[in-house]
Write a structure and sequence with these properties.
Blueprint lengths: L2 H19 L2 H4 L14 H8 L3 H8 L8 H10 L4 H13 L17 H9 L4 E6 L4 E4 L1 H6 L1 H4 L12 H7 L3 H4 L3 H18 L4 H13 L1 H8 L9 E7 L3 E11 L8 E7 L5 H14 L21
Antiparallel strand pairs: 1-2, 1-5, 3-4, 4-5
Amino acid sequence: MDPRRDNRSDIRDFLTTRRAKITPERAGLPTSGRRRVPGLRREEVAVLAGVSTEWYTRLEKGHINGVSEDVLDAVARALHLDEDERTYLFDLARAAQPASRTPRRRKAVDVPDRVQWLLDSMTLSAAFVTNGRLDIVATNALARALFAPMFTSATADERGRPNFARYYFLDPGSHHFVTDWESAVSITTALLRTEAGRYPDDKALRELIGELSTVSTDFRARWAAHDVRVHHGGVKSFHHPDAGLLQLIYQPLDLPLSTREAHSLTIYTAEPGTPDEDRLKLLASWAATPAPAQHPTTGQADRGNASAE
């Protein structure tokens, strides 16, 4: 399969879907008569970007190689791209350059001890590290307790590592665990789309997208929308099986562990003085409590002599 052909398809579909979202009114253009297409016409985008219709048509067909940053900026402004969408467009342009025709090899790296120590030091916040494919590759005790349904899900890999996309789209239990499932899966798909634009030759990422596209109609529909997102903070609510309803604030941070593999450190915490903080503290205390030892012969929890009194 020619990765450049796939890249051209992504460019075409991305620009087409963005153009369809911009109304003439929003673009400041006069409107008159019936319009056969949603959003702007190609010639209208060309006028707004200061290029010829033939040139923009060629660009929308995926021929982005050699296009200057100034022209890409003009197109981004004409299409009212937000910062995340603009970043994605530039990533697509970089991937189309001749120097990028040799796939950039990505190699998984082990999380250094110093990062695990950092995670473990955060006792009142759930903290974990993900790679660009949204696998959880390191975690502290509270994050493992918070995301227990993901760690025990059949969608975790053979090493017991959960993947947000697989869990959300392939485990029906995710609909109950995440309060706003629709928002969660839309963000997850947009993050994967952004990663695919940045690393189009990532074999593991392509396999993940292929698996989800084959199994999940929800994923296929969202993937076709070509929405993109770079990590941002926000608020997310969970129906935790032990702690109940939790509304938590989260903030992802770039974690530069390797030049070949993208990582992000994400921290979930509760607003101080709220019931959510109380419930998160309770979950933290449970996570910090060692599991009862199993009796070597009966397999029952050994709780000392309390039962004999």
